[in-house]
């Protein structure tokens, strides 16, 4: 029985007796040493929501953590139409529209065409993110206001 998500069972030690007990043993059972070989396998559930993450992006994230001063120059091959679709579906559906006025529902109407267009613009260098719509909301219990940035669906 598993202990929980991404948890290993406790170490199991074989207790099987040797072949032909009572005679000189032909072979002894090798004891297990745990799951050392599995420890470095890539994980695919690393986001806070425990949704799946691309293993390629997970490797990029790990490399960025280990080599903080290194510049990454060839990452566009990770931006696929599938990744853009997953990212779109992870957005809040009832969020306020950005400066372009496009809501989640509006973008969804022609989703595949929109994603193919966005993918082409990103890979050709023609993509430019729109500015963030800035609103100020009151802080509770005070006269001060907190800035709120509302991005567009496409950015």
Can you walk me through this structure?
There is one protein chain. With 155 residues, the chain is of the alpha+beta class. Among the domains are: 45-78, no CATH class; 93-155, no CATH class. It has helices spanning 55-66, 81-89, 104-109, 111-124; strands spanning 133-138, 145-150. The two termini are 44 Å apart. 1% of the residues are buried. Residues 37-48 have low confidence and may be disordered.
List keywords for this structure.
155 residues, extended, two-stranded antiparallel ribbon, alpha+beta, 4 helices
Please outline what is shown here.
This protein is α+β, with helices and mostly antiparallel strands and 155 residues long. It is 26% helix and 8% strand.
Tally the beta strands.
2
**Biggest sheet, strands in spatial order?**
1-2
Write down the overall mean pLDDT.
77
Encode the helix/strand succession as letters.
HHHHEE
Which residues sit in consecutive blocks of at least 5 with pLDDT less than 50? 37-48
Give the topology:
Layout: H1 55-66, H2 81-89, H3 104-109, H4 111-124, E1 133-138, E2 145-150
């Amino acid at each position: 029985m598993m202990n929980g998500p991404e948890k290993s069972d406790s170490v199991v030690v074989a207790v099987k007796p040797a072949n032909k007990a009572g005679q000189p043993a032909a072979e002894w059972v090798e004891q297990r040493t745990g799951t050392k070989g599995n420890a470095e396998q890539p994980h695919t559930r690393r986001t806070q929501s425990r949704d799946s993450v691309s293993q390629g992006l997970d490797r990029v994230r790990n490399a960025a953590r280990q080599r903080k001063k290194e510049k990454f120059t060839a990452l566009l091959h990770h931006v696929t139409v599938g990744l853009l679709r997953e990212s779109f579906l992870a957005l809040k559906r009832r969020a306020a529209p950005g400066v372009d006025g496009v809501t989640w529902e509006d973008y969804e109407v022609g989703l595949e065409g929109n994603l193919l267009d966005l993918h082409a613009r990103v890979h050709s260098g023609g993509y430019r993110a729109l500015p963030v719509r800035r609103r100020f909301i009151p802080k509770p219990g005070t006269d001060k206001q907190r800035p709120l940035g509302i991005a567009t669906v496409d950015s």
